[in-house]
């Protein structure tokens, strides 16, 4: 039975044309791929070609090569120091951060800036997608709620932690209970906290509470130093042991502000090896250096417990 009436027979010229076009398609497809050599890929994140500029068929290979190569972490580089804000102390990139974030943190020598390897490999052209934008917005709302709880507790001088902070506890402590209160009375906060937040990003752990408290302490200290300005001041020092039986020195500065009021502000706590005069002097000098204070402006010193002021 002949199939000519069902299928049109192709001529020899048609068959040659199909073969030629197929060969061109295969050749162009092969040309779209490039040979990936991890040794030739630019290591410096500030000089790399954006991942979206590579051909779409080559991007996964580029990503695998960079993941195998690892983040750019020049630990033996002499990182330049810069001054930030009104603090006279110079700061620079800390190579110890490479140990804390070994899989993704990068540093660009060309740009003197830190980068994220994963952000480079998976960031979309023209910015981030709507899901990422929403995640960032949710995180900002969750972080602001956590900061507000910490600010209230710090202002009132209340403890953060509770005796039993498990989910079945009737009293999880001031920080968590206050965050629960905010979530019950604010729908925007309720949608992004506790069970609605990612398991790794709830911002309720003790470490997060300590980080927020430390950040608040640094901001408050900066305000005190700024208010002090170039004025003369005195220091009041008391020595005591903390709960771990380590010697520590609490420092309070006393000065007159621009309105003529006598101000006393807690400056910080310094751990000391012992309470000899030489140890206290070294701790005071270290604290002054940290906050950019000059000992030449010191006009008075007060110590509680004269028995501790003995020779080294």
Describe this structure in words.
Helix content is 39%, strand content 15%. With 312 residues, it is an alpha+beta fold. The chain has 3 domains: 116 residues, no CATH class; 83 residues, no CATH class; 80 residues, Nucleotidyltransferase, domain 5, CATH 3.30.420.40. It has a 4-stranded mixed β-sheet with strand order 7-6-5-8. Strands 1-2 form a two-stranded antiparallel sheet. Helix 5 crosses helix 6. The protein is globular.
* Helix and strand run: HHEEHEEHHHHHEEEHE
For the record, the count of structural domains works out to 3
Write out the strand line-up for the largest beta sheet, numbering strands in chain order: 7-6-5-8
Computed CA radius of gyration, to the nearest angstrom = 31 Å
User: Ranges with pLDDT <50 over ≥5 residues?
Assistant: 21-32
Global geometry: globular
Category from helices, strands and their pairing: alpha+beta
Number of helices: 9
Q: Report the mean per-residue pLDDT as an integer.
A: 82
Structure in a nutshell:
The chain has helices spanning 12-31, 59-69, 96-100, 117-122, 130-156, 174-185, 187-190, 206-228, 277-291; strands at residues 82-83, 90-91, 105-108, 113-116, 233-241, 247-256, 262-271, 298-304. By secondary structure, the chain is of the alpha+beta class.
């Amino acid at each position: 039975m002949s199939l000519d009436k069902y299928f049109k027979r192709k001529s020899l010229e048609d068959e040659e044309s199909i073969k030629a076009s197929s060969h061109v398609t295969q050749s162009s497809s092969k040309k779209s791929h490039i040979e990936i050599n991890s040794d030739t890929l630019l290591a410096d994140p500030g000089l790399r070609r954006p991942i979206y500029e590579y051909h779409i068929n080559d991007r996964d290979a580029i990503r695998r090569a960079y993941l195998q190569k690892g983040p750019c972490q020049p630990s033996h580089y002499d990182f330049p120091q810069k001054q930030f804000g009104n603090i006279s102390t110079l700061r620079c990139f800390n190579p110890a951060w490479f140990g804390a974030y070994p899989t993704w943190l990068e540093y660009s020598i060309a740009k003197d800036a830190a980068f994220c390897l994963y952000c480079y490999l998976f960031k979309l052209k023209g910015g981030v997608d709507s899901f990422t934008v929403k995640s960032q917005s949710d995180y900002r709302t969750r972080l602001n709620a956590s900061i507000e709880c910490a600010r209230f507790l710090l202002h009132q001088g209340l403890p953060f932690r509770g005796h039993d902070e498990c989910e079945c506890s009737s009293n999880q402590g001031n920080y968590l209970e206050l965050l629960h209160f905010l979530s019950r009375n604010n729908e925007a906060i309720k949608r992004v906290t506790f069970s609605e937040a990612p398991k790794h990003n709830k911002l309720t752990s003790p470490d997060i509470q300590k980080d927020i408290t430390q950040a608040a302490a640094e901001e408050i200290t900066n305000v005190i130093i700024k208010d002090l300005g170039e004025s003369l001041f005195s220091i009041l020092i008391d020595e005591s042991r903390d709960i771990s039986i380590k010697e520590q020195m609490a420092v309070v500065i006393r000065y007159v502000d621009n309105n003529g009021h006598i101000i006393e502000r807690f400056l910080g706590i310094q751990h000391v090896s012992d309470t000899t005069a030489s140890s206290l002097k070294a701790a005071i000098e270290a604290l002054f250096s940290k906050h950019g204070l000059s000992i030449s402006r010191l006009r008075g010193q007060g110590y509680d417990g004269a028995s501790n002021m003995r020779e080294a």
